[in-house]
Amino acid sequence: MATPPTPGKRAVELVTDKLDKPVTDDREYRVVRLPNQLEVLLASDATVDMASAALAVGVGSFRDGGIPGLAHAVEHLLFMGSEKYPADNDFKSFIGSHAGASNASTSPCATVYHFQVTADDTKASGDSESQQPGPSPFYGALDRFSQFFTSPLFLASTVDREINAVDSEFKLKYQSDDRRLFQLGRSLSNPQHPYNGFSTGNLKTLRDEPAEQGIEMRKRFVDFHRTHYSANLMKLCVLGKESLDTLQEWVATMFSDIPNKDLPQNRWEDVPLWSDEQLPRRVYTRPIMDFRRLRVSFPFLDEELLYENRPGEYLCKILGHEGEGSLLAYLKDKTWAASVSASTTSICPGTSGVLGIEVGLTEAGLEHHEDVAKAVFQYISMLQEDPSKLKDFVDESRHLADLAFYYRQKSESRTFTSSTCRRMQTQVPPKWYIGIGERAKAFDLELMTKALDLLRPSRTQIMLISQRYPGTWESKEKWYGTEYTTEPLPEQLLSELNDIYNNKTRPAELHLPAKNPFIPKNLEIDTEARAYKTPRLLKDTPSVRCWHKKDDTFLVPKAIITASLHNPAVYASATNEAHANLFAELVTDTLQTYAYAASLAGLHYSVYTGTRGLMIRVSGYNDKLPLLLSRVLAVVLRDLEIRGDRLEIFRERFLRACRNSELRKPCLQIPAYEPWLLSADFPSAAPHRLYRELVPALESVTVDSMRGFREQCLKRLFVEMYCHGNVTRQEAERITGIVEDSLRGTAASTSLPKAGAPVITDTDQEVSKDSNSALRQLEVLIPRALVIPRGVNFRYAETIRDPGDVNNCISYHIQLGPPSPNSLLPNNTVYASPSPGEGERPETTALRGLRARLQLICHILRPRVFHQLRTTEQLGYVVRTRMSASPGARGSRVSAFAIEVQTEKTPEYLEARIDAFLQTVAGPAVVSTPSSSPSEQARDGQETVLGKMTDSEFEAEKKGVVDKMLEKPKNMTQENDLFWVRIRDEGYDFEQAQKDAQHVLAVRKQDLMEFVRTYIAPGSSQRSTLAIYLRSHKAAEQPLDAGDAGSATNQGATTGRIDIKDIRDFKASLVADVGPRPVQGLQTYAYPDEA
Predict the structure, then answer these.
(1) What would the pLDDT profile of 297-319 be if each residue is shown by its tens digit?
(2) Domains in the chain, please, with CATH?
(3) Peptidase M16 middle/third domain: from which residue to which, for each copy (predicted)?
(4) Which of 76, 673, 691, 1029 has its Cα between 20 and 30 A from that of 358?
């Protein structure tokens, strides 16, 4: 029971401080209610690096009131200034300067806003102008955040801009099949229900139609906020390193002034989601991309109040099961399906949800789509016959859910806050706010029976999604133009489905799952074995190198094992890469029935192509991990049966995926072009090939060619592996032995030395006599990046494949490096930097200095790029900056700073605007023969973004970079991945973040200004750039450098670009940088007694 309010000016009522939480969770929690009835969950974590807050407003697009996109546009506008902080970029700028991020989303019944910033204590939270007092940046961010809900300005100058931003978002996703199919489902629902509407909005709904009707949109936005944004409909979650009392005081001070209008919960109880006339029904629809799916959907229970049972959760688990006896196993045996999934969707309070079953069809499955639908109902009929038989499956699932909850690890800060405030908007009791998603639900036979009774043929909508349809597409969806045809479910088919549903005779292959053999029994955590701060070298022979780190941080009974099977054959050609991808798919397909039980028990595996060859990764409870690893290795190395029917399914699916990749949004395609162009290999080596390069190879794959590839792929291997987690050194040695024994027992491989072979710590000098057939490390390909000469600017342009996509995209790369061991600047001025680490190569120290400058300039520019190019100039919805640490080659010394923009405007115009922006950052460029003195250039530089920055602001930017670099992993997986990247890149720089941070702190403002003028400023004789254009069909009708690129606003664009016409010739003209090297000798990583 809630306690009485605490006395005081801002009386706060304690709801509960007794929340169910994982045994590993050391956070303190408290749920309180403010005087205005806003409920808040406070979370205090003294170890958190990033503080976060998220607020869910219990209103969304269902209250658009006849103006589609109204709620969505209000969400955009709340970021654009408040009475207390009127600048339209104040919030984003403050968040960005403190290593943070923010976002928001609008759903039918809720709008969620969230952010995170560095949690470190400082003396002030505001900038030098505002001088807002506060103990941390989180205070300043939280104060700004609270103004969204008390006093947003809805500035007239920002209204049109954000309507354009909403329209850009609409156009961004216009060709997205996921969005188109989602909207088609909505448009085919009951027209009387708000679900039938359109929630994104565009220029037509937010500008043109309101103007025609005389509606003043700024007033409507203000009215929507005043009417629907009520404190009693809001839920706030706050996570910081401050005490609960401090967080409570902040929240009470900042959020108690949000008006409480005492509004009722938004509910829609009187109108069904589908009318009686709309069911049963069949829909055919045509996607943009080439894929085939069958969806079988039913109006289901409204599970809002069924959080303790949720029968839909268990039904979806068993309908989507992949083990023996499952629907998928049956359909795979028929060669009709490659995947089956099931899910429930909550629509809104008071309205029935939807339970959907989706089958990924093969070519044969498309021909037999009605038989697939019949199989779905045969499985449902089996479940419906005796629901009590589901109890054992439910009880087992509950046990596994309890394990998952008890050993759940921390997530990213804003992932935690945003998901928690969404959960607080449901009817879940406060004590379950942080755990109901994972916690077990009780089996209720009556409720399960009722749920199954809803899955009848007479209540279904069957949707077939395919580009192939024998008739004509009769209709187009209103908002996205999706082609479809719909009809009542044919009487003959309905009759057959009813007979199946009511008949107890069904294929014997369909049955409930067996008992799960992977449920862990030993959950002890070893705390006795010594743990090291970074991975140790456990074994290093000519054919196997194993790294190990015993976990002493997260203390969960889990481990992760990663093995890279190096073999140049995997990526030597497009043909081999195509075979390698299919080989990995066939392995996964073979293991699917066996390993699905493991996945339910928290054990997971993956087999895929990596940067050196095949990759194997297993993770989960360490008790059963060796069992899963042994089976995966057996299939990879020995037991895989290459069947022609299965190979054809995956060959055809992968072929479609490769072709579909060129139909994605341009902004999703363009990141692949940089490594494709700047890797030293030609033809391009995996993983830098574009998917289209694999198409010819895939068309000629046969069973014989696959068998030949397997022989070639497994004949000679060098294995680099890593054991991380609740695994002692001795256990890691046994796991390494499992890998070695598996390889040694493979007829196709003689790569392993015999048992007892000597340990060799310097494999470049000595090779074991027993490994004559081993793939020596000297034979493993050394990846290298191509270096663009100083002062040279390249351009590569392509036309996108999808004629219906109006978007263009530019990726503007400024290449930096390789650095000189003595300097980063052409005048040989040695920059201030820490001394090299013990045993560290001089070039490593120089590289740290380069990365420090690059990290810092990226951090400073990211919010400014977004504000200028997206918010102010409205160039497009997608505007982003990124640092590419090693384009073209993992672990290389070459880095790049990139700006990417997607919009309807031409790439030439975008490039000009990017250059204009960079000019404001960099000032006068460094040229071979300066026209002004250094003192004059320095004076000009004072007018730039960096020049106007005060020393305290510059130090704050540096601190933001360092805070982000030193952010600790939140869980074991993140720590494992961090260390594995260092192993994979062959630098073994396990303390890179800590050492690079020291270099960031040593950078002086004048150093960075000189660096930017030299390597980033347009016109600099030392700048190296690559502009990549993906042009729409409309833009491609004009020659390069034509169209809007010639307008006056384009003056100052990069001139003298060299167009890349011949990829081979381009690559041949460039020099390759050195390959990756360990930052220090490998012997220094060995366990002490083996050094």
Answers:
(1) 999 999 988 988 889 999 999 99
(2) 13-255 (3.30.830.10), 276-411+433-502 (3.30.830.10), 536-754 (3.30.830.10), 786-1072 (3.30.830.10)
(3) 405-680
(4) 691
